Amino acid sequence: MENHQNNEVFQALAREGVLITTSLSYWRGHKKLKPEEVGLEPSKISDRLVCLGHKRLLPRECFEKLSLIEGRVHAYIEQNTFPFLGGLAHFLPNAKLEEVTTKLKKLETEFGNAKELFVACYSQWRETAIAEWKAMIDKLGLFNGDEVVAAIEASYPAQHRLDHFFGFQTHLFQVVAPLANVQAVTEADQRGVIEARQRVAQEAEDHLRRETESFVSDCITTLRTQTAQLCTDMLASISTSETGVHQKTLNRLVHFIEQFRSLNFAGDSEMEAQLNEVRQQLLSRTAEEYRSNQGWKQQLINGLSGLADKARQMATADKTTLVRNFGEMGKRKFSLAA
To answer: In this structure, is residue 136 part of a structural domain?
Structure first.
């Protein structure tokens, strides 16, 4: 693909969505476990061969709410975006922008509530945990037990400093190629510095454009692969479930088609047409109707099998034309907007 075509793809991507990063942090209550804390002599433990891991300053259940929210945040981002440049950020299509940011704000509120609960219970949890550590160390009969207990007690942050360990941040970025800021170079700078800065910026821009073309192709492949996997999962559910065809199984396909449309920023009309055809042919009946008619059930199975095979075939097909069309699509939208 020629450089100017790459440029169109890059510009189209910049107009079709944004990059999003979400970071969530909290005090994990972990500290490195030392040999003397479990009755071992440090001089007899080889760091090259043995790793003792970490000790928990608070029981795992104290972090359950925070951990659950963290998992939900990461899962939600993965389900509604595409990893960009190896996961440096995630690409969020415009059609998903309001939905995702609204959901993240709700999760941030839940995280804030979980944080307040954690802080409120921290002192009590800390005292209980220290008592358990003391009891365990007494059972071990450590000669330096008092020192070990003192070291563990010192590992807990003061309650008024807990805020320092908590954070929930979401940032949105526009996809922009790096530019050489020649104006920032004074007249006293050598010409070679200016040329080097321009060259580095141009190389970075060319690299990003190549990565962008690959990224758009990968996103198309991802959605097609997910289509095939969903059909495979639905077929497995139908064949193994005592009910046979369950309404929840059909609803998964309905939800996926809606999800596909909102994530299909690259304009994969061929895959979308396949999904629309399946929706018209297979989702006009209820699960109860499929269960009551063996012929209709077989039609559902054949339709899902056909879609899975077609999606797998399309996932491995060359995407060059699709990527080029995506660039042209962005170009046309820009012209209309102007």
So the answer is: yes
Per-residue pLDDT of the chain (338 residues; tens, 9 = 90+): 444 444 677 778 888 889 999 999 999 988 776 666 555 666 556 565 556 666 788 999 999 999 999 999 999 999 999 998 777 889 999 999 999 999 999 999 999 999 999 999 999 999 999 999 888 888 877 777 788 888 889 899 999 999 999 999 999 888 765 544 445 445 545 555 445 545 545 555 565 566 788 899 999 999 999 999 999 999 999 999 888 899 999 999 999 999 999 999 999 999 999 999 999 999 999 999 999 999 999 999 999 999 999 999 999 999 999 998 888 865 544 443 43
Q: Which domain holds residue 132?
A: 16-173
Verify that 160 and 274 share a domain, yes or no: no
Phi, psi of 116 (to 5 degrees): -60, -40
**CA distances (Å), origin 329, targets 15, 16, 18, 270:** 11, 10, 17, 15
Q: Is residue 68 part of a domain?
A: yes
Domain total for the chain?
2
23 lies in the same domain as 161: yes
